[in-house]
Amino acid sequence: MANENLAGRSIAGYRLLERVGEGGTAEVYRAEHADRGACAFKVLRQRLRGDPTVVKRFLREAGYGSRVKHPGVVRTYDFGEADGLYYLALEWAKGEPLADFLHHNAPLAPADAVALARQLADALAAAHQAGIIHRDLKPENIMYDRAAGTVKLLDFGIARDAEEPPEERLTRTGFFVGTLQYVAPEALSGELVDGRADIYSLAKITYYMLTGRHPHEGRSPRELFQQLLSQQPKPLSDAAKGLTFPPALEAAVMKGLSRNPTDRQPTVTAFADDLEAGLADRKGAPRQRGLLGALKNIVGKRSE
Which residues are annotated as catalytic? Predict the structure, then answer.
């Protein structure tokens, strides 16, 4: 069945201008609203509208997003059913997916990476305070505005309520939800997770921002799965040639990547606090290896 194109239609007061993206369950349009201006408009795919579980999950995303009020979280304007369509209207976030930016620009300067991690931690903290665990934090679900230097968190499609009873779960025991490269190890068995799973995902994003590499680099999903369950992540300073980091900064990142949730920082805010404290550790300021790095270090010492 060919995908329907709703561009040009008006739904629930939103005029759909063009289709800009699509996923497994929904299509995304750039839309205009008389009062709200530019919006992102998600529509559940036609073939899924008769599946009660999918519909419930889609509307649940809308409900979760609407509970989180923070500048670093894309606002949920409206959601529901209209003209036989299930929809979700969101703030139009300027910029590009953080994944695209990092693909071309990682590794970032440590100060820049830590600043972005702090913004993401603040947004996640607002979600956690609202009782929402994201569970799918990854660069593809973050919009980055280069001009403003800001990030916005989006896509609560597989988030869950921290107070949700087991019988209300929409995933089956034994199946994990999330993206394998960023999912916390405890989620791989499909168990209920808490906010520390988001800390792990944020630590993986921070690691990638700092190094341009991943702490686990399995050559296949199966190999990566096994690494996440059984192998320690590669130390931050060993991730990429020519880069080392302050010991306290490395310790903060690696603590967030602990396989055991109880060994991580207790909150996303504490994780960001540790990053900033590690960055301020001038004794272990990041140094580049090799002859060029040595010359820069000598010049730096003479200027102090």
Answer: 136
